[in-house]
Amino acid sequence: MRVWISQHWQALGVTAKQFFFKPVSNFLSVAVIGIAFSFPLGIYTLLDNLQSFSDHFVHSPQISLFLEIDATESDIENINSRLESFDGITSFQFVSNEIALAQLQHESGMGDIALHLKKNPLPHAFIIHTQHMPPDKLEENRLTLQQWPAVSYVQVDSDWTRKVHAFVKLGRVAVIMLSSLLGVALVIVIFNTIRLQILTKQEEIEVSKLIGATDRFIRRPFLYFGALQGVVGALIAWIIIAVGAQKINDNLTELSQLYELSLRLNPLSLFQVLLLGVVAGFLGWLGARLSVAQHLSQIEPK
Amino acid sequence: MITFDKVYKRYPDGYEALTNLIFTIDAGEMVFITGHSGAGKSTLLKLIAAIEKPTSGSITVSDQIVNKLKKSMVPFLRRSLGIIFQDQKILYDRTVFANVMLPLQIHGFEKSVMERRVRAALDKVGLLNKEKAYPITLSGGEKQRLCIARAVVHRPLILIADEPTANLDVAYAQNIMDVFRSFHQVGVTVLIATHDQTILNDSTARILSLNQGHLMV
Ligand SMILES: Nc1ncnc2c1ncn2[C@@H]1O[C@H](COP(=O)(O)OP(=O)(O)OP(=O)(O)O)[C@@H](O)[C@H]1O
Ligand SMILES: [Mg+2]
């Protein structure tokens, strides 16, 4: 057991030495891996955030019902009573055109302009909150409301979340495809790196075989090296995305104050980062393993 | 310890390098293998270490039938031997110390044990003051002694040397033969291929003489 540990430890030492012996060329290949992987990782981070952002809205769908501009008091009464007996509505609220105008003046800072208007250009409206319901049910209700007298336009405010969901779904597929392709590319890159390394160490491998090295012993440093390259590549990708998200967040702060929303890109969780490292390490190991299987057997000492 | 029974070796190009070899070397014996250039000395030694396979016949080394050994077991056969190669096989990208340490790393010793043993082996061949040197800076005799140190550092029971005194002057050759004799004295089986006549004359050890792949009697 101690021998076994010390052998692995030595192989790891050899690997680390190897890595830092040629820092420039090793860093370059690892940087390529890192930059390549930052693409799907970045898209993934964006989608992840977009999803949780839109999920936030999906749970309380909101419908805006706008009346005709010339709707009368009795029209409003009529709609009010119809809404009270309507199924699936949790709450609703009447917003008169005066309130709407006052809000507009207040929020947009266009108070002066509004003062000069002879007539209020805004319609009366109802803001309706419904229970959580599937999108097609929501659409059905919207159409029903649309038919009511004196109603000019009904809008489902959370409609865009459906679009976001569809978009995120599509994006997920793209990320999976992109990562799979890059995963294969990683295996190929490591395969080739290890091939070159085996070539330059041909003599050492030959001598080692002649004095009794097992295949496992000879393989070990190469496998560690492949895995290490994968992990460091993933680390670089993660750093790129973390720094990028930080930069975006700096700019989002301003934007979110403008819209009174909490807009923030959340970085990947610790679990996600670990998973990324493990997967990249495994792919690196796999590339090295394939390369070693292909190239070591060709070296038979004479 | 080592037995050849009707061993033939024909290389892939059809050349028969060894013909019907029958002999036994006892444990603790010291034996010379001699013969003209191309007689088959190196081929014989390579068969013992399973570097080449016999075309027919059977080879036994420390109770293992070498020609029937599974590929995965070959490393363990080689670990029981100490081999000095005709073309030396020194690694020039690392120090003398690192060269000698390689067999111990393969065996998987602890670091402190390895360092102690490497120094002991280097001391034995008189290279202790060169441990940090790179092989390129060594003289011919020093390189040979480096090879010996690497071959004995893991304390094998069988020592195999292919032309260990090639290109060395008489004084150096004597010095190297003394090292081999000291291993023989502590019970190591020693097998040396050489065509150096002065060495053969000096020694009382058994001589296996090869001529075009045939064993002379
Ligand atoms: N790999 C090989 N393929 C074909 N023929 C070979 C091979 N290796 C050796 N031979 C031939 O086998 C014969 C014996 O070679 P070997 O190297 O055993 O001779 P040797 O006695 O060690 O000679 P020297 O004293 O020059 O080292 C030679 O004729 C050589 O040409
Ligand atoms: Mg020879």
Radius of gyration of chain A: 31 Å
Largest β-sheet summary of chain B: 6 strands, mixed
**Alpha-carbon distance between the two ends of chain A:** 33 Å
Mean pLDDT of chain A: 82
Largest sheet of chain A at a glance? 4 strands, antiparallel
Radius of gyration computed on alpha carbons of chain B: 17 Å
Count every helix of chain B, treating DSSP H or I runs of 4 or more residues as helices.
7
Note the total helix count of chain A: 10
Description:
The complex is a heterodimer of chains A (302) and B (217). Chain A is an alpha+beta fold. Chain A folds into 2 domains: 2-57 and 163-298, no CATH class; 62-157, Alpha-Beta Plaits (2-Layer Sandwich). Chain A contains 10 helices and 4 strands; from the N terminus they run ααβαβααβαβαααα. Chain A has helices at 2-21, 23-58, 73-84, 97-108, 111-116, 135-147, 159-200, 202-210, 215-259, 270-295, and strands at residues 62-67, 89-95, 125-130, 151-156. Chain A is elongated, with a radius of gyration of 31 Å. The model of chain A has no long low-confidence stretch (mean pLDDT 82). With 217 residues, chain B is of the alpha/beta class. Chain B has 2 domains: 1-80 and 157-217, 3-Layer(aba) Sandwich (Rossmann fold), CATH 3.40.50.300; 88-155, no CATH class. Helices cover 35% and strands 26% of the residues of chain B. Chain B has helices spanning 41-48, 74-79, 96-107, 111-124, 140-152, 170-185, 197-202; strands at residues 2-10, 16-25, 30-35, 56-61, 64-65, 81-84, 158-162, 189-193, 206-211, 214-216. A 6-stranded mixed beta sheet of chain B has the order 6-7-8-3-9-10, sandwiched between helices. A 4-stranded antiparallel beta sheet of chain B has the order 2-1-4-5, with helices on one face. In chain B, helix 3 packs across helix 4 (111-124), helix 3 (96-107) runs parallel beside helix 5 and helix 4 (111-124) packs across helix 5 (140-152). The interface between A and B is medium-sized, with 21 and 26 residues. Bound molecules: adenosine-5'-triphosphate (ATP) and magnesium ion. Magnesium ion (MG) binds next to helix 1 of chain B.
